[in-house]
Design a protein that fits this description.
Elements: H1 3-19, H2 22-30, H3 37-57, H4 69-87, H5 89-94, H6 100-111, H7 127-142, H8 144-151, H9 159-166, H10 180-204, H11 209-219, H12 238-251, H13 255-262, H14 267-271, H15 274-297, H16 302-317, H17 332-344, H18 357-375, E1 384-385, E2 388-389, H19 392-418, H20 423-434, H21 455-469, H22 473-476
Antiparallel strand pairs: 1-2
Helix pairs in contact: 1-3, 1-4, 2-3, 2-7, 4-6, 4-9, 6-7, 6-21, 7-11, 8-10, 10-11, 10-12, 10-13, 12-16, 15-16, 15-17, 16-17, 18-19, 19-20, 19-21, 20-21
Amino acid sequence: MRIKVTLHYLGLLIAIVGATMLLPLCWSLFSPDSSDASAFGISMAITMGSGLLLWWLTPLDASGRRVSRREAIALVAGSWLAASLFGALPYSLSGALPNFLDAFFEAMSGYTTTGATVFTAIEGQCQGILLWRAMTQWLGGMGIIMLFVALFPMLGIGSAHLAEAEMPGGQQGEKLTARIRDTAKALWLIYFGLTIAEFILLRIAGMGVFDAITVTLSTTPTGGFTPTALSIGAYNSLSIELIVIFFMLASGVNFGLYYYLIWKRQPGKLFNNPEFKLYIIFLIGAILLLNLDLVINAGMSISESLRLSGFQAVSIMTTTGFATTDFNAWPEFTKSLLLVLMVIGASAGSTGGALKVIRLLVLAKYTYRRILLAFNPRAVAPLKVDGSTIPEGVTSRIISLTILYFAVLVACFLIMSALGLDHITALSSVTASLGNVGPGLGMVGPMENYFFIPAAGKGVLIFCMLAGRLELFTLLMLFTPAFWRWR
């Protein structure tokens, strides 16, 4: 593996991260409280300077521009780590989070669209800091590498390897365009369109400009950061909740299906897609079960329970993590069901996290096929999804990722328990971090925060957030000695 190639492009990516700090810097300069402006200025100078210096010190000739598969894996993992490390500077330098581990936790939570926070007084922060929190989620939602590929198509690097390394682990779906950079541009255009549409609708619904910006920048990436400690519940508006529900739901759909709907004029690709239909079925079923339990065991009216359960089911399954109430106080069955939704997640190709619906569909079909073959070994039973046969390599990768997912979850749960956390807090914090959900149960509920977690525990959760965002394989490959062998 050519380390020089990886460092060259990593430097350019770091410089891009620094350039994105310009917006919160300008906002801080013109906001009533500009005390964080200098922190953004210094952070921007350090980040861009470091990135450009690294890029300049590792020049490449024409033959060295293409990135191999292993170099792409190292670049993707390095980019997310570097973005979070440099993205932590504004928090640390402004004094919002003086402890750098806390600042790193917040930045990683933002870029991975997890939404777990260590802030104990969100409303007391400067607007520039709150805007930066939301921006990190928006930038991470579609993927830092996908942004890089869309912005720099002329570099001639291995774009396909980069995209595969950032979105690994299973069903990749059809190739949307002939060139991966055109696919990246199309997906970012859809992403940007959803962002603009939500902002306009939230403004029409009466939300203030700053709140509408930050909420929007956290909804489309299914992130969950808000400028209020009470999340979306602080606005107490049915119209705002309905708008947010729609865009959380839309962001949990495979963005490739929107490409066929908008550019190809093929609505059947969306509405006949088996993953999309199962995604909707899961949500409707979860809402009905939550609603039933809240009416029977929490004494809520049907209208109140439907409003609360509908919002929370969509929020948790899409791994957004917004809240309109403290669901930590709900009956045990509802909390257990929400924990299950944290594991299921949204659709592949969406901005949501966790296992993804398509993998559960493939696993269910695979299990059914094994049952058939158990009593009829000679039967020909190809595994098909949406009329296409799933290759055995894809199936085995999905199975191995699922095993790995639960192995990491159990191991990290045991570590968090060993650090002194109660079982509910330990399990839900790991589940919420690995699934990029954010709020959990117990002491990390929707109205709580992660500030009290011990330093070692924050390190574990940072690992979980990154592993969940890169879907385990890309990150864990770096820990295998064979990966670093010189060739």
